[in-house]
Design brief:
Blueprint lengths: L1 E9 L2 H31 L7 H6 L1 H7 L9 H23 L17 E4 L6 E4 L7 E5 L3 E6 L7 E10 L2 E9 L12 E6 L3 E5 L4 E3 L3 H4 L1 H12 L11 H35 L2 E5 L3 H4 L6 E2 L7 E2 L3 H14 L1 H15 L2 E5 L24 E3 L6 E3 H19 L3
Parallel strand pairs: 8-11, 11-14
Antiparallel strand pairs: 1-5, 1-7, 2-6, 3-4, 4-5, 6-7, 8-9, 9-10, 12-13, 15-16
Amino acid sequence: MIRAYKFLMRPTARQAVALGEMLRDHCSLYNGALQERRDAYRHVSRTTVRYGQQSAQLKDIRAFDPERQGRWSFSSQQATLRRLDKAFAAFFRRIKSGEAPGYPRFRGVGRFDTVDFPKDGDGVRWDATPHDPVTRVRFQGVGHVKVNQHRPVAGKVKTVSVKREGRTWFVVLTAEQDQPEPLPATGSTVGIDLGIASYLTDSNGIHIPNPRHARKAAAKLQAAQQALSRFPRRKAKNRTRNHRRAVDKVAALHRKVRRQRLDHAHKTALGLVRAHDFIAHEDLKIRNMSKAPAARPDPGRPGVFLPNGAAVKAGLNRSINDAGWGVFLTILHAKAESAGREVIAVDPRNTSRRCPACGHTAKGNRPTQETFHCQACGHTAHADTVGALNVLRAGLVRRNANPA
């Protein structure tokens, strides 16, 4: 089992400068490799450059530029080239599946915030001595950086990454550990229905309110973005002190919302995992649900478009993104794996339209957002509770059909 740990680093002023130079030089390597691939495809008879070819050039690149590229770990530079290779693999996968391609883009220095080290001991050394009160991590070209290790790392450290968030630095570890002991069985099963009005409703009728973190911070974020918009657009190195302060304020507000969303998702998932042995949820296609509606051209007037509900859909999309369903489901699956619980995703179609009493399915069974009233048998309940019950039943059917 692989688990990740994220710790705050406390670099000195000189170490912070060196870490920034590390990100800058890896960003330059990434952009140079991307430019080589673009030029080879455009100008050399559509030639495709592979990761192996670019990795073989690293030795010459480091010898040619020892001050910027030669001072950093060879394996971390290979990891940066692999990141570009994965971006191209995802690009071709999207083309084959008919999705929007999204060709890999050049990264600005301010948007390249992570350097990966594929192996502990190769360019980086995680040094957590049990008897030493201060934990440090050593990076090649930077030195020993103090780490605020707020919890012990279980297992053997496999990979290490350095990450910048605003002006704060973090180290991210992945450790391989044995499967932990499962939690004691509770004999309880539950289905959950994710929503906007309520963040989560379970099959027992319990509603968890939607915290709406982004909406609560919208006024402050709007004011901060308006203040930032008054500055002319400049490169990071040419920004004034007030401009940098305005950028940092916007970024800090976004980070706060993200941390609040993660905290709520962790606590909600942990409560479910501790209370239930089996959890069923809808297999939501969140990316499709939050797409903007397609334009509706007026057939009688070229260049004129009919109303398509884009404004209303934009508000719904903001609420979906604010809820963070994808993050919550990822955390739920990870915690369930550690606790020895079972989580199953089921088809969400008609879960809120099917009567749990008689099985009648119709659009009219849900006259309003919160009300379910069966047209066949008259069963009445909260619509989200009905959806959670149907999700639970579908999950149990799927589990019994595919026993472990």
